[in-house]
Amino acid sequence: MTSCHSIRPLLPARAEELTVFEARARAEHVATCTRCATEAAAYSRLGQALATMANLEVAPADGTLERVLVAIGRRRTAVTTPRVLAAAGASGALVATVVVARAVHHRRQTRRQPARRRPLPGRLRLPSLPVPTPALARAK
Amino acid sequence: MEVDRELVEAAQAGDRWALEELVRRTHRSVYTCALRLVGNPDDAADVTQDVYLRVVRKLGGFRHEASFSTWLNRVTTNVAMSTLKRRARRFAVEGAAVPADTRDPAPEPSERAEAVALARRLELLVAELPEGQRQVLVLRDVYGQSTEEVANAMGLTPGAVKVRLFRARERLKAELEAAEGGQVVALAGRRRATGRRS
Question: What are the domain boundaries of chain A?
């Protein structure tokens, strides 16, 4: 039989918090030890009372509810509804797609443009001469 | 905290009245949970407001996989823990939660009434636990969150949660016995002697 000393740490635990081995050891010990059985029962009742606390509510200070309602009234927008959220998401995705597509297109365009030729070093760069028109040629 | 699914769905669809009614029905429960976690009425009121601001943002994503009250409790837990981490300060035990007004559930059998009476006394003792122990105990034993959920919410390992939980239960039981002259133990013994489930 297990000793009270080894079982004592298991007494506050709920059944689902113990391993199968621990649960069996506790059950066997409690069945034969009045003192540990009383302790285990006290913990069990404590657990029940704690669970009951979830149903007890504390009244907040006056004005708390109104403050919350005002705050959510300010923050709340129609965007919170699922349909509007979906529509907003789709619109955002569309805008993002267009922006990315334009950026890619722009980049491709700039890549296609031929690179400007740099003048060779040491060579004189002449300005382009005007093409003589027929009237000007005749005058000459 | 009773919340109809229809009411939640109406609030999700953008019905302003439904959302406000949701707040009216649940704010006491949210405030109570926040008060038990942060241990200070002013901060509990701030947490309550932040919870509903988050609810407004996240309600569209609520899929009814869990009950609304369970979801709301998780939101409250997360907001309360974030608040505590952000402010990084401890509250004095003297300023801790003291329930000014508790609402009775509907009349129940004697066993239930006894548990309610005990729960009211426990509320004061829980408020006097060290902060870390109190939070673990409240989340696990009062609101029924799993050890893993508590660990995630508090940024602890499951092992650390179990240790705190063990200490909190042990201390609470000892203080309850001291406060009531061993009444719990006596009740438990009597209950066991009469063969009733305890």
Answer: 4-54, 64-110
CB contact under 8 A, A60 and B137: no
Instruction: Note the pLDDT of residue A106.
Output: 84
Q: Give the residue from B59, B124, B75 showing the smallest Cα distance to B98.
A: B124
ipTM of the complex: 0.73
Using a CB-CB cut-off of 8 Å, the residues of chain A touching B57 are 75, 80
Residues in chain B: 198
Band the pLDDT of B177: cuts 50, 70, 90: confident
Burial class (CB in 10 A: 0-12, 13-18, 19+), A36: buried
Closest among B80, B111, B44, B130 to A51, alpha carbons compared: B111
**Whether the Cβ atoms of residue A33 and residue A8 lie closer than 8 Å to each other:** no
Name residue, tokens 């407001």: B49
Q: Which of A52, A64, A81 is the closest to B13 by Cβ?
A: A81
- Give the chain B residue whose CA is nearest to the CA of A10: B166
pLDDT tens per residue across span A74-120 = 876 544 555 656 666 777 788 888 888 888 888 888 776 655 555 55
Across-strand partners of B102? A58
